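Researcher: Let's do a round of design. I'm pasting the structure tokens now; please hold your answer until I've finished.
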């Protein structure tokens, strides 16, 4: 990831939850985004199969009310702060090979879903530790375990 993209992520986390992340955190962050989007897509595949379809559609994605609100918050931050983070998110999110095909709409929505997950992750750090400024390895591990329980 180039320096410009790193700066966009740093600004996004600062705006989302007042956190200072550095380029060392970006690998963990990238693993998180890729893992959680893959989990969502795997569940979407199960929904599409259960409904007798051979293409995964956006409505198959298990987007909860909380994740939808996080996607809206992500959009507001992106637009208000003029943070060009979507190209970086597009590069982070890879469609995992599944049994079913993806619709173009699913592919189009993934960066915003990843943005919503990113916003939720930033907020999770602050919920677990309201005084946190710079997440350390242990903070990332706790946040990942919480998301694994819920998504």
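Researcher: That's everything. Go ahead.
Model: Designed sequence:
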């Amino acid at each position: 990831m180039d320096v410009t993209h790193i700066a966009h992520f740093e600004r996004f986390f600062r705006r989302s939850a007042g956190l200072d992340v550095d380029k060392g955190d970006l690998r963990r962050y990238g693993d998180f985004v890729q893992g959680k989007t893959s989990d969502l897509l795997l569940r979407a595949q199960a929904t599409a199969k259960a409904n007798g379809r051979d293409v995964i559609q956006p409505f198959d994605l298990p987007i909860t009310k909380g994740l939808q609100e996080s996607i809206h918050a992500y959009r507001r931050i992106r637009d208000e702060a003029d943070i060009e983070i979507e190209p970086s998110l597009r590069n982070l999110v890879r469609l995992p090979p599944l049994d079913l095909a993806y619709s173009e709409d699913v592919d189009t929505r993934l960066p915003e879903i990843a943005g919503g997950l990113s916003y939720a992750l930033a907020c999770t750090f602050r919920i677990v530790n309201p005084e946190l400024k710079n997440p350390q390895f242990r903070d990332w591990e706790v946040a990942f375990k919480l998301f694994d329980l819920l998504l």
